[in-house]
Amino acid sequence: MEHTVKKDVRPPYGVIAVLMVGAFIAFLNNTLLNIALPSIMADLKIGPSTVQWLTTGFMLVNGILIPTTAFLIQKYSVRNLFLAAMCLFTIGTVLAGSADVFSVLLSGRMLQASGSAILMPVLMNVMLVSFPIEKRGVAMGFFGLILMFAPAIGPTLSGWIIEHYDWRMLFHFVTPIAIIILLVGFFKLKDIKEKQDLRLDLVSLLMSSVAFGGILYGFSSAGSKGWDSFEVYGTIILGVVFLVLFIIRQINQPLPMLNFKVYKYPMFALSSAISMSVNMAMFSGMLLLPIYTQNLRGISPMDAGLLMLPGAILMAVMSPVTGKLFDKIGGRVLAVLGLAIIVVTTYEFSQLTLETSYMHLIMIYSVRSLGMSMVMMPVSTNGLNQLPTKLYPHGTAMNNTMNQVSGAIGTALLVSIMTNRTETHIGEMTKSAMESAAGSQPTAAAMAEMKQQIIMKATLEGINEAFFVATGIAVVAFVLAFFIKRANQAEEPIAVKTVHSGTGE
């Protein structure tokens, strides 16, 4: 059986275009919310460890649902999956836009996540099977260009909306666009796929949900409850136990929901490890910077969004360039250089002060984004290139699952470090200030000002220490990048029986 894409078959550009527009609006929605987090915290009277659930909860749903996408891609048509995904995303957007309490907002975000979880793996699988390996770098590069345009305009657009309207307008703005995309998909996408006689393994789905849900919930709760809380370490241990059971079941299943045998291909396993590390480090900037710029520095939401604009544009412009370079020189050189940049710039973010200039922040963020553009797509594409065609659904599902899980763990870990270290520094600074003020009688106004100064300095130290941990995570990815080799597609799956029966052939 032929496992490679035939070069004389024209890729389905119409289908890809509709899928990309849907993915674009999902990406735009994510980047819109980052700048709005401080405003949501103030309006709904919640703290950083609570508001981060809007990010972590989104990833939690993705982490639970994405393992099922390999099954869904094989069983259902692209049209049906796209329409289901956009329906869920649209309903979630309407719900979040009408939220007056945090629980309703979080529910809307999770519905959005359920749609996004289906949409991205479907698009990636269509891209992989539509282009031969020698053209895949360029194709993925232009795919990255379109998707990176969302983070290019997202923060700035969000900042402008927040300054002039209520944060709920972010969702009201997305709703009509999502409805139009849903209607276009309904009329333009055609059902061209035969039905596959597959059944979802409900036991595997339950194990997967408890595994990824437990791990992510535990990490996400650490910021507010502390690492010594039974609710934190208990759910993490429960998640790990069920993850082991889930992996064992998948390895022994004739029709695995998520085929862990993709990790028998060394370049895929390596790319997965690098991508997970980069994701954990990357979310430090996305979540911590808005808190630093708006809460500590008093920078307006609009200016905080503009700060991220040059870096996002740079990522978008560089995406097709790195795609072409990947086709010519492979992924190792790009990954090593890109990760070196990420390590240095992330370390620079761990040295922030209350006087760090606005232009310095723009420069660091922009150069860091350049490094990201050299790593994410080339590393991921190189790993997927080694897989046989029949394992693409499992490879894309595995990549998306691990990226969401690592991103959520990274977000929760870094926020908990920031929160816990901030509290520690507040205690230390307060004690030191009281000892210095012993014997004097400061006024109430002086005491209030001193308390405010302590909170700001302690929060800054917490943010810097979180960025320092993110630097260490980036160093791990940098070391792994030296082991990258150009991947050649395997002629047939390592476990032929498992994959063939999983596709219904």
From TrEMBL:
Keywords: Cell membrane, Membrane, Transmembrane, Transmembrane helix, Transport. This is DHA2 family efflux MFS transporter permease subunit. The chain crosses the membrane at residues 12-33, 53-73, 80-99, 111-131, 138-161, 167-187, 199-220, 232-248, 268-292, 304-321, 333-352, 358-380, 466-484. GO terms for cellular component: plasma membrane. It is a multi-pass membrane protein. NCBIfam families: efflux_EmrB (TIGR00711). GO terms for molecular function: transmembrane transporter activity. Residues 15-489 form the Major facilitator superfamily (MFS) profile domain. It is found in: Cell membrane. It comes from Mesobacillus zeae. Belongs to the major facilitator superfamily. EmrB family. InterPro entries: EmrB-like, MFS, MFS_dom, MFS_trans_sf.
